[in-house]
Amino acid sequence: MTLPAASAASLGRRAEEVLERFGDHPSLLFEGRWFSSGVLAGRSRRAAAGFVGLGVRPGDRVVICMANCPEVGLTYSALWRAGAAPTPVLFLLTEDEIRHVVQDSGAVACVTTPEFLPKVLAAAGGLPVVVVGDLSDGSPAGVVPWEQLESGDELALVDRAGDDLAALLYTGGTTGRSKGVALSHASLDAAGAAGAAASHSPGRNSILLPLPLAHAYGLLVTVCGLHAREAGRSVLMRWFDPAGWVALVEEHRLQTSALVPSMIQMLLAQPLEQHDLSCLERVSSGAAPLAAEVQAEFERRIPGVEIREGYGCTETSALISAQPNAERRVGSVGKPVPGVEVRIVAEDGTVLPAGGNGEICVRGPVVMTGYWQAPEATAHAVRDGWLHTGDVGHLDGDGFLYVVDRIKDLIIRGGFNVYPRDVEDVLLAHPQVVGAAVVGRPDTKLGEEVVGFVQLAPAATVTPEELIAYAREHLGSYKYPREIRIVDAIPLTSVLKTDRKALRVTLADLAGASVR
After folding, report:
1. How many distinct structural domains can be found in the chain?
2. Structural domain harbouring 66
3. Do 310 and 354 have their domain in common?
4. DSSP string, 327-390
5. In this structure, are 378 and 482 located in the same domain?
6. pLDDT tens-digit profile of 188-237?
7. What is the pTM of this model?
8. 389 and 325 in one domain?
9. CA 213, CA 205: separation in Å to the nearest integer?
10. How many CA atoms lie within 13 A of 416 on its CB side?
């Protein structure tokens, strides 16, 4: 896998180059309507002028809280053309969480869609920001209609340097207030080039996009499109719906899709065999670890499809490693993409050899410029040029990377390290289990005890005791869970990762109730 020879460019210029390469063609399908690349480009140029008319200047941050729609990509392109920095937030965040992002980023404007307009207006209340919205359901006072942005002339490109801010993304905040991750044009451009090279296959040019575009993974897919080697067509879902996903693949004969593991598990509950999905060739999986059993089952039920797992984090423009086109190693997240170095480090800072588990550290052009207005946090995360990801993993002898777990999720039971993912993978291998999450609870004797939360398949009859016995057969004596709790659904965060924080709170509440 090699990268294009072109040096880093601003993302606004990349968008112009794409149109020059492929010309005007049907490029995006959304809710039954096709949008051509030329029409979208013209709209984004006019929207760029509209943003400038609202007072948006180069370097300014603009919060984007939108459901998936063509206007999300238009907003990205328009802001990059105007030299500003999109600051996307997931629509699942609360009013207080959105307000924190608006205040902390110093945003000058917010863009939203009708269903989230009341929440965004409340979050922005009293702050010096302009709110832009699609006002198909009316025109609340003080809100600028999206149509107004496109009502003027097109804006000439405001080019930016490689180290200028291109996007400000906020982390999930699972360990406190979310932090802004500053990504430069050069960082996102490098990630886009590497991602496009890793996923390219001649003739495979149709993709289904169910990911929230306001997430780092969704943004990466968007930027990869700026480095496409051939004209393609994308089908965008407003939000992920398993049955709708299956129907779109079948109807439009789509070849690829980008998913997260929780989406793949939801798709396994669909009658996949009743649909002609033979067109589907490749699915990329990221944002969270994918259990080998889930991958094998998905590929068994859709013959001919191949899941390729990659790895990244917000601080690396969502990309660190990908499966090489010529080789796939199941269980790994591929090899570091060109230009990116990975090393595994022990607690004392020693660089570990192949096979040794330690913290995954990363160096290369995809790494953030730093946390927004947080020099101490930046200095802690990036040391001697290496980003410390907080993830545990190892490299094999051929350079393939394996992610084991998050350091903060590590359970230490009686002095032994227990990685939740090891236990979860075993539980998910049980035929009556469709979801599993493992956390530690305080234990006066052992320090921590392993607790599993399990979501069962419909009509399942297995008991917690039987699941404990099953886990004991497949795990070391210090690893298997001594407690299993059956739940209706495994809680997920706003970015569809297992919400272990919520499960720890549940355990704490249960412990408190038993004391009372």
Report:
1. 3
2. 15-160
3. yes
4. ---TTS--EEPTT-EEEEE-TTSPBP-TT--EEEEEESTTS-SEETT-HHHHHHHEETTEEEEE
5. no
6. 999 999 988 887 666 678 899 998 888 787 888 889 888 888 888 899 99
7. 0.82
8. yes
9. 19
10. 12
